[in-house]
Design brief:
Blueprint (H helix, E strand, L loop, with lengths): L11 H32 L2 H28 L2 H25 L4 H29 L6 H29 L2 H20 L15 H14 L1 H16 L7 H8 L4 H23 L7 H20 L4 H29 L5 H30 L1 H36 L4 H6 L1
């Protein structure tokens, strides 16, 4: 039997990209873990955890539409290379700030805003460039699923290393290693040989191109529905991750290592979910899998929310994260495989706005609500919302199937068949 889990590795450019990104993303997750721990240790505020997420992700929401237009107008490869170099500079600045030790929360927030702006241009360019790396487009869904597995394997490894590094060597090490890790992805990009892409005409203004993207999404309701559902998940469910430091310190009475282990359990579940998606044979109903996994996500959060037994909580976190993975990966796969090339950057930018833009707002909401009804009840509510969104996915699927059935019935009978009758 032919194993298709790693079929995208047939493409040399993708192999280079995967190797470079794998190293870089471990550093990224080390930095994310260290930032959360530093902020909570500095402020002891659950609300400030939400503010930090807001500072990192809301700029991505504000500038993503511009990032999508840039990705459609200019050489996506060069845009991606530029964002990686600037990301390395941001990581170096953060390392220097933490190294001197006399930092304030506003400095961390300012550098988080800088990273959010970079990501607004990086995501549309990176996702569009992955399309160019794959010679046989049948391998594209596999490549996108492997991307997700890469992100989540790094999430599995990175926080665990960060937790140990913070305790043994200090938080500065996490930031310094992240800065160094960008060299891997920059070198891998410089080694690639990508086909020359056709550039879109630049005679339209930014707002006209943005309107074109909105009209295209409106004319493809399946894409629009998926982006709206991703936005709801990002706003009301995914920000559960901002409360993990509270679980580690206050509920399980742990240390930075406890935080790293919980985050790694979430990474393990998400990595398993990504490998599951990469192993799917072509032709599988991805929308149905997305609906089912949304229920898995919600159920995992509900079970995790009030569990005080640490090993059991890790199991539930892993289950929830398995379902969580489908939200981003399947939505991205459907967009990449169905959107016309001229619109890919702009549609991906709306996808990025839904993913990155709603999470920071959700982080503020979750931070505020958790102060009122406590952290465990907040996560329970997020799990229930995920179950409701899963029901909306099933309802949309049934409506689509009904429309297709009605269209098949109303289809006129060919003249030859009518004569035979």
């Amino acid at each position: 039997m032919k194993i298709s889990t790693f079929s995208a590795f047939k493409n040399r450019n993708y192999r280079l990209f995967f190797a470079g990104q794998s190293v870089s993303l471990i550093g990224t997750w080390m930095q994310k873990t260290a930032v959360s721990w530093v902020v909570y240790s500095l402020t002891h505020s659950k609300f400030m955890l939400g503010v930090t997420l807001f500072a990192t992700m809301f700029p991505s929401f504000l500038f993503s539409f511009l990032g999508g237009i840039i990705a459609d107008r200019y050489d996506r490869y060069k845009v991606l290379l530029a964002t990686q170099v600037i990301s390395m500079i941001q990581a170096i600045l953060l390392t220097v700030v933490i190294w001197f030790g006399h930092y304030h929360i506003w400095e961390i927030l300012a550098l988080s805003v800088m990273l959010g702006i970079i990501n607004a241009f990086d995501v549309p360019a990176r996702q569009s460039t992955v399309y160019m790396m794959i010679e046989d487009k049948k391998d594209l869904p596999n490549a996108l699923a492997l991307n997700s597995s890469m992100v989540n394997l790094s999430r599995l490894i990175g926080p665990g290393i960060a937790g140990i590094a913070i305790e043994k060597l200090g938080d500065t090490v996490c930031f310094g290693l992240n800065a160094l890790s960008f060299l891997a992805v920059i070198i891998s990009l410089l080694m690639m040989k990508l086909p020359k892409e056709k550039q879109n005409a630049k005679n339209k203004n930014v707002f006209a191109e943005l309107k074109e993207g909105l009209v295209y999404i409106k004319q493809t309701p399946e894409i629009g529905f998926l982006i709206i559902m991703l936005g709801l998940i990002s706003l009301l469910v995914l920000p559960f991750s901002t409360l993990i430091p509270v679980y580690a310190r206050d509920i399980f009475h742990g240390t930075a290592s406890t935080f790293g282990v919980i985050d790694s359990a979430i990474g393990l579940g998400a990595f398993s979910g990504a490998i599951f998606l990469a192993s799917l044979k072509p032709g599988k109903n991805l929308k149905k899998i997305l609906a089912i996994n949304t229920f898995v996500f919600g159920a995992g959060l509900v079970l995790f929310s009030h569990t005080t037994i640490y090993p059991l909580a890790l199991v539930f976190a892993t289950i929830g994260a398995f379902g969580m993975m489908s939200q981003v990966t399947i939505t991205n796969t459907i967009i990449q495989t169905t959107v016309i090339p001229e619109m890919r950057g702009r549609v991906i930018s709306f996808y990025a706005m839904a993913f990155f833009g709603m999470q920071p707002l959700g982080g503020l909401i979750v931070g505020t609500v958790s102060q009122k009804i406590d952290v465990q009840n907040t996560v329970l509510a997020e799990g229930c919302i995920a179950l409701l969104i899963g029901a909306l996915h099933l309802r949309f699927l049934k409506k689509n199937e009904k429309k297709k059935a009605e269209a098949a019935i109303q289809k006129p009978i060919p003249m030859e068949a009518a004569i035979e009758l």
